[in-house]
Amino acid sequence: MLRRRQLLAAAATLPAPALAQGAAPRPAQIVVNASGGAMEQLFRRSYFAEFERRHGIRVVATSPVDFGKLRAMVESRNVEWTVTELGGQDFMRAKELNLLEPLDFSIIDLSRYPAAVRDTHIFPSSVYSTVMAYRSDVFPTGQHPVGWAQFWDVRRFPGPRSLRNHPVDNLEFALLADGVPMDRIYPIDMDRAFRKLEDIKPHITVWWTTGAQPAQLLVDREVVLASGWNGRFFDIARRGAPVAVEWTGGSLKQNAYGIPRGARNAVWGQHFLQIMTMPELQAVYATELAYPGLHPDTPNHVSAEVRPHLPTSPGNIEKQYWIGVEWWTQNGARAQERWNRFMLRRS
Amino acid sequence: MEKRFGTVRALAGVDLDVAEGELLTILGPSGSGKTTLLKVVAGFEVPDEGTVRLGATDVTVAPPRARDVGMVFQNYALFPHLTVARNIAFPLEMRRVPRDEIARRVREVLELVELPHHAERLPRQLSGGQQQRVALARAIVFNPRLLLLDEPFGALDRKLREQMQLEVRRLQRRLKLTTLFITHDQEEALILSDRIAVMEAGRIAQLGTPDELYARPATRFVADFLGESNLIEGAWQGGAAVVPGFGPVPLPAPGTDGAPALLLLRPEALRIGAEAQSLPLRAEGRVVESVFLGVSEKFRVALDGGPELLARLPLRPSQPSPAREGDRVALGFAPEDLHVVRG
Amino acid sequence: MSSAVDRAAPARAEERRWVWLALPAVLFLGALFAWPVLRLLAQAVEGGTLEHLEKAVLDELYVEVLVESLEIALWVTLLCLALAYPVALWMLRAGPWGRALALFMLLLPFWTSVLVRTYAWMVILGRNGIVNRSLLEWGVITTPLPLLHNLTGVLIGMVHVLLPYMVFPIYAALLRMDPDLPRAAEGLGAPPWRVFQRVVLPLSLPGVFAGCALVFVLALGFFITPALLGGGRIIMISMLIEQQVREFLDWPFAAALSVVLLVVTLGAYWGLQRLTGGNRLAAG
Fold it and tell me: Which residue from A146, A192, B161, B295 has the highest number of Cβ atoms inside 10 Å of its Cβ?
């Protein structure tokens, strides 16, 4: 309690513009809240180490990512986190609810980032893609299905398939399969998408729920084609499974970070995010998990073996589309309800 | 018959015959094999050797249900979810007796055990004595060839127990039920039995009528187990048994000279003081302890240069106690009251 | 009748004096159960509108899912009962080692995470799993049986986890039974199945009832196992509730669905109790 009051008093005496100009006092530490686990280890090796070296401020990691907690912190004006990861599609909501500090582009340089992910409040930390993977022993590369129309083509590419038990991605895939061009997906025509999904439904043996499932299903030969997150397929392919990825029609999504509104050392949060844009450091994370940061130079800093497995590598990124976060934020609940009905209908 | 559990011989050669209409008691302490014997007869265990016959039928390996044996368990084993009537009807239903006959026989047997108005109660609504009657009714309602009673009075208080013992006795006589009664209570055995088999370590130590067993026990164990006894280590000399403190007592069929003799004197055979003076065998001693028992008084007397003996004298209200603790008294007995347990 | 009542009366007075011992438990339950349930009820009618409840009760989607959830829970309960009863009987007769082994095997699913368990089932039941491969090799079948990613898989997975909840109450009821009772029945002329039907089964009914109630209620609340083993084809009401809470933050509607589930569960419980005369037997 005492600490909090002192801090408030300290904040009141400091003129706000001084903070923004980088003349802010150097705190002993900043707090980065993220998912923890293996990711924290990689962050420690890359972003944390660089930030500590460059600014002499210790980085303390906390977890888990919790939208409710973020909201409570901001609303009670007692923000512990300097920077936080924003789970799933929560970043849109966080921005709408005014829970984030604006990004300071005099500190953070996003000029070379793809336009699709540049935002005033949301920092695009890395990217992952929902892609099609196939058993390369069943469909030798080159004779494998390319794009969702061929995924739908059960006569030419027979065999059990798996898709996620969720409307996100699947509605887009259905439209792409039905001939909608990538740049015309949004706004989604739900009637058309669900109609197309009916065609593939009998051939989906598993509607997967967790990210590990599609990879495992392919390894077990339970299915020969599946959608899934590129990092999972990268992992099993690296360990020798006859599984390969087709990037065409992949659904790109960003992981997001932000600075909670009212964060104590917001300026240093901006500096931390700037560190996170460095392609050399992004390459560390990308090499391990195939989830690269969005700096266009990052693929140049990974080994030649890893490069084709990154969704952002030239040759891959053009084949994919960026998911319409806005559309989903507005229509998610409605789409889910239709999805439930669709799943329930026996056909 | 033999029955072994692992290396333990629970039954080590038992040969027993229950006569038609007889109440035969298996008497023994716990661990003597009486429960095993009961289980073998009831069919819950199969003997390793020997046969079990009911009448002319060999039922050695027959399952319990095929034996036609009615059994009353220690805790009665009444079915708690069934009414008294349904409990009693159970063996009849299993025998596919027609419904109206079941009703009639249940009614009859409830009259017999004097519970005519309890048919619709559940066992837990009955007292211990009533539960026992129901258990008995259930065990006899199907006219079994053999009735087994497994320590059935153990759970009752003393007064109720005595009452139930007499009732069971009356019923057994009246219906001429061939009955095997298992108990560790020698008093109970003496009251109820036509014959008693005393079991010791998986064997029958002695088989006989209650008075035979009491008066002429065959072994030290039987003598000790049934009633109170003075067991005296004597010796044979010149055709007489030498009782320490009393001197030689000539007896028929004596042992060889110098051989030890185990002699039994029941406490009630001994007389004290004036009454002892007229008896041929006498000794002097000091009263170590006296216990007043209402109908009688018990004395522990240390003989001069001899063993301590227990004497029991009947009391009459008009007569004072013949001796007090610390008194010097004379003890005496009649030679025909001396029994040789082992020559 | 009267004597039993007479004896019960002072016992009840005695009981009343010790009632306060239950106070901590009552407070605990009140704080952690009754209060949240009330909050839930309140949330379902938040803003004084019945629209959420109306949707939960009238929309065919939710009605259909609810009916299917009840069906699945019922199947799981029946399967558990069929499997658990013999196990409980066997445990009653087994020696201490056998009992320890049974206990260990029954509790094993509790010590493994739901994901590990699920992947284990995939290895066993999958298209190329142990069962299908063996059957194919022995020539019993020519195409793999669909054991996973459908109702069969969900039932197997749920029964696996819930089996102990059925075994233990039945085992406890059997353990309470005087072992002389089946013996007495046998001695009175009952063949083994009659002993079971007339004595063992009725006396174990309180355990059966408790087990069924537990398994049924727990089964209704399952959502991870059916989601993973059902291949997406099986939707249980709890999955929809979880979806509403986690994904759409639509607490009022989630609360409305929960209230419907709660009411149906209580109704089923009550029905089951009526069916078996639960009270009377539990007292015996």
Answer: B161
Q: Check A344 against C148: CB less than 8 A apart.
A: no
What pLDDT does B7 receive? 59
- Dihedral angle, C-alpha C162, C166, C167, C171, nearest 10 °: 160
> Within a domain: residue C7?
no
Residue with tokens 């998986």, as numbered in its chain: B202
Helix (H, G, I), strand (E, B) or coil at C28: helix
> For position C7, what pLDDT does the model report?
52
Name the DSSP class of A142. Answer: T
- Predicted TM-score (pTM) of the model is 0.78
Task: For C196-206, write each residue's pLDDT tens digit.
Answer: 999 999 999 99
C251 touches chain A (CB under 8 A): no
CB contact under 8 Å between C115 and A212, yes or no, is yes
Would you call C191 and B81 a contact, using CB atoms and an 8 Å cutoff? no
Residue C228 to chain A, least CA–CA distance (Å): 6
The full set of domains in chain B, from first to last, is: 2-217 (3.40.50.300), 228-342 (2.40.50.100)
> How far separated are the first and last CA of chain B, in Å rounded?
29
pLDDT at residue B248 tops 90: no
Shortest Cα distance, chain C CAs vs residue A293, angstroms: 26
CATH of segment(s) A2-125+255-296: 3.40.190.10
Each residue of B42-51: pLDDT tens digit? 999 888 888 8
The dihedral through the CA atoms of A330, A331, A332, A334 has a sign that is positive
pLDDT averaged over 10-residue windows placed end to end, chain A, 347 residues? 44 42 76 87 93 94 88 91 88 90 95 91 94 96 95 96 95 97 96 96 91 90 94 92 96 95 94 95 91 92 92 94 91 91 76
Q: CB–CB of C61 and A204 under 8 A?
A: no
Does the distance separating the beta carbons of C228 and A213 come in below 8 Å? yes
Q: Does C247 touch chain A (CB under 8 A)?
A: yes
Question: Chain A closest CA to C133's CA: distance in Å?
Answer: 12
Number of domains in chain C: 1
Whether the CB-CB separation of A95 and A122 falls below 8 Å is answered with yes
Please identify among residues 312-331 of chain B the ones whose CB lies closer than 8 Å to any CB of chain C. Answer: none
Check pLDDT > 60 for residue B88: yes
pLDDT reported for residue B284: 86
Contact A123, A257 (CB under 8 A): yes
- Judging contacts by C-beta atoms under 8 Å, the chain C residues touching residue A341 are 61
Q: ipTM score here?
A: 0.81
Residue C6 falls inside a structural domain: no
The token duo for B308 is 């301590």
Interface test mutation site (partner C, options A67, A170, A344, max chain C beta carbons within 10 A) = A344
Question: Is C276 part of any domain?
Answer: yes
pLDDT score recorded for residue A21: 45
Q: What is the average pLDDT across C134-148?
A: 90
Mutate which: C228, C234, C238, vs A, most A CBs within 10 A: C228
Q: Which CATH class is domain A128-253+307-344?
A: alpha beta
- DSSP 8-state code for residue B301: E
Distance in angstroms (rounded) separating the CA atoms of residues B164 and B183: 14
Which H or E element spans position C66? helix C60-93
Size of interface A-C (CB pairs under 8 A): 59
Burial of B117 (0-12, 13-18, 19+ CB in 10 A): exposed
Residue that wins the pLDDT comparison between A311 and B18: A311
CATH number at residue C179: 1.10.3720.10
CB-nearest to A216 from C61, C122, C232 is C122
A337 and C231 in contact by Cβ < 8 A?
Answer: no
Tokens of A15: 């003129």
C8 lies in some domain: no
